[in-house]
Design brief:
Two copies of one chain form a homodimer. With 226 residues, chain A is α/β, with parallel strands linked by helices. Chain A has eight helices and five strands; from the N terminus they run βαβαβααβααβαα. In chain A, strand 2, helix 2 and strand 3 form a beta-alpha-beta unit.
Chain lengths: 226, 226
């Protein structure tokens, strides 16, 4: 007799954090359903990275779902506002950045919940991280807990006693800690893309907050970068 | 000196309930931003009804946002599963119906939250109703409260002290009570569409749960129907 395989939905942007989370969930024995969003982000290189990562790390299925967030505007990641470049570590750590997309993680987790319920999956993985990005309110543990509670009240599955669990395994790790974890799990970070403003061919700009934090993370993890 | 106008986002499907809610929010003096979704529902007549209702009731703006929910399947409203017809009142009130769309109100409220935050609106209106449709878990007051709490933890606005409020003014009304409220507010229900399975020209089927509950509501409100 074999034990039934547990399914999980893993939010996958194609960046460093979410790719590490996918490797983590696969290593924990979950059958992983990766979920990415086409939400009007400036560039599609992110989605191309997600496709490669999902395949290489062994996701059972990868869905890319369209969400018209760009109709609302209000963020450097979806509109014509310039992505800030060359900020210092102190500047990056202060306040909520212009790259904040209103309610993004709430929207993404809601769609992950819808996907999970149709699959009969009760585990949802998200690569939020409260340390390096204290500026995003929807990366905090209290947000994750509140969403989990909402999910269990919102759904047929929750009402019928199958409790949803939102896993945020990176939430207390530094970027260097995330990279070290990913290396142990065999993640090839050259497939991932963290840049907010890459060239049309997917080459990272090297100067946005995300590129700078990534570079700092690799240096602190004792690597030259990837 | 004039008082600043308060903005609200109103979820509008084009059906009886959400149209009544829009009329209610307008009557309360809100500048209303109506929000509808193209989520792969079987028919577009619903969206056409929403457009007419938004215009006639005086919404300041009406956005229709695409959300690829149909990629997940799992509901009679988005997939090829047949919409049940001719069920009795007792059957309608029992269990969670096949027309349940997984996590729908969580997804819709999340997108309303994203829209509200970009507008600087802190009031969100939704036409959920716990009485006639006890079968949908995401129509219950405890779900609405949990989502509101999540919204205030998720957002920049929430963190900065602007509290979001989710208004569900119909939650304890019967269908007849909703119709009576709407009549007082001048709603022309002939513009609205409640049917789950209308003909291509938008004519209601008259036999799905939603048509049957609507008809019952009008009879109980002392009307022949609309």
């Amino acid at each position: 007799m074999t034990l039934p395989v547990k399914k999980a939905v893993v939010l996958l942007s194609g960046g460093l954090d979410s790719s590490t989370v996918l490797a983590y969930a696969v290593a924990k024995g979950y059958e992983c359903y990766a979920l990415s969003f086409d939400y009007g982000q400036r560039h599609k290189s992110e989605l191309m990275a997600a496709r490669k990562v999902a395949k290489v790390l062994g996701a059972t299925r990868h869905e890319v779902v369209k969400v018209g967030l760009s109709r609302f505007g209000g963020s450097a990641l979806t509109s014509d506002v310039a992505v800030p470049k060359g900020r210092t570590g102190k500047e990056i750590g202060t306040g909520i950045p212009i790259t904040y997309v209103p309610a993004r993680n709430t929207v993404f987790l809601s769609l992950a919940l819808a996907f999970a319920e149709t699959l009969g999956a009760y585990d949802i993985f998200i690569g939020v991280n409260a340390l390096d990005y204290s500026g995003y309110p929807d990366c905090r543990p209290e947000f994750i807990r509140a969403f989990e509670r909402t999910a269990n009240l919102a759904t047929k599955a929750g009402v019928e006693g199958n409790k949803f669990k939102i896993h945020a395994p990176l939430i207390k790790l530094t970027k260097a800690g995330i990279i070290k974890l990913g290396r142990k799990l065999g993640v090839d970070y050259s497939l991932t893309l963290s840049c907010y403003d890459p060239a049309p061919d997917g080459t990272p700009c090297g100067a946005c907050d995300s590129c700078l934090l990534r570079r700092k993370g690799f240096l602190e993890a004792g690597e030259e970068g990837a």
